[in-house]
Amino acid sequence: MKRRMNHRRQQTNQAGKDSSRRRAPIDAVITWVDGNDPAWQKERAAHTPQRSAYKAGTSDTRFRDWDNLQYIFRGIERYMPWIRKVHLVTCGHYPAWINTGCSRLHLVKHTDFIPEEYLPTFNTNTIELNFHRIPGLAEQFIDFNDDMFVIGPTRPEDFFVNGLPKDTGVLTPFVVTPNGIAALEMNNLEVINKYFSSADVKKNRSKWINPAYGKSNLRTAIFMQWSGINGIYEPHIPLSFLKSTYETVWEKEADLLHETSLHKFRSKADVTDWLIRHWQLLSGQFVPRDIRFGNYTCLPQDLGKVKQLLQNPGKCRLICINDSADIQDFDSIKAEVNAALEQHFPEKSGFEK
Greater confidence, 293 or 5? Predict the structure, then answer.
């Protein structure tokens, strides 16, 4: 009997290995800038307009470095061992601690994938809308900003199922705030309503009204009564994308994406990579995921929440620790956040020297 059980266990382990080999690769993409780099500062200053109608696009807050990129890599190594390759995208500078010899790391410069006519760029929308051009990028990839961390165990099936991104499909109006991104989201929705309507939500009703979303289903139930799409819930955590969706949207809206990519800094006329996400959702190219899987926090008001989640993630697996112009004592809050991250991730990863 014992020999038979061992044989079964070996068969199960082998089946798991075979399944892993058959699974389509999943990559991670991380964008980062060293706001303290003198050469980069000089180039940025040379292209910064004297006057900007959208100050949030040129603000120093958008470019300052929190010195905690290493914890994103530690989270990926510890909680996402199944990631095939991590593509670190920068203008050409890298942190001193990065292990350039790491086999799972691909260092990507803007010049490696962004068309020359868009460079140099200081616009995250330009960078993210051209991700599909990254050499060697897998069809399935996860997009990280440099303030997004993996804080709990994950599986590939938490991000992609049968070749489809896993995501949260909830309709909700977008809140307009001063110097926020509401204008950009309205631009996204203008495109979305050109191609989709609430009929597409109803067509995939079980994906939009789903137990995974809890009380948020009420929002969708209300707003799907309108013919147009008034807004889509944005979790602001690492997101699952298909490279082919990027190619589809570029094919359909080349002029608009080209115009955005020409902007050196964020502009109120931009669209964003959320447009790609919206397209995936409304075309039914997604699988529902628990809305509690990730958590968005904003500093300084959520400092306590950040510490609590890092100490006890619970069902939360992803966290965004967002910077803001409201921070008065940057150095103090930075030290507290990084101390909490260090406590959660005390060991170096193979991505570090």
Answer: 293
Are the CB atoms for 189 and 271 separated by under 8 Å? no
User: Binning pLDDT at 50, 70 and 90, where does residue 86 land?
Assistant: very high
Distance (Å, rounded) from C-alpha 306 to C-alpha 72? 15
46 occurs within a structural domain: yes
Q: How far apart are CA 137 and CA 20, in angstroms?
A: 19
Number of folded domains that form the chain:
1
Bigger pLDDT: 61 or 95? 95
Query: What DSSP designation does 98 have?
Result: B
Name the residue range of residue 252's domain. Answer: 28-344
Tokens 């961390």 sit on residue: 149
> Residue 231 sits in a domain of what CATH number?
3.90.550
Q: How far apart are the C-alpha atoms of 181 and 186, rounded to whole Å?
A: 9
- Asked if residue 2 belongs to a domain, the reply is no
Contact assessment for residue 129 and residue 261, using Cβ atoms and an 8 Å cutoff? yes
Q: What is the pLDDT of residues 244-274, one digit of tens each?
A: 999 999 999 999 999 999 999 999 999 999 9
163: left (phi over 0), alpha (psi -120 to 50) or beta: left
* pLDDT tens column, 115-125: 999 999 999 99
pLDDT at residue 179 in the model: 72
Beta bridge partners of 287: 166
Cα 181-182-187 angle, rounded to 5 deg: 100
Asked if residue 15 is part of any domain, the answer here is no
Residue 18 within a domain: no
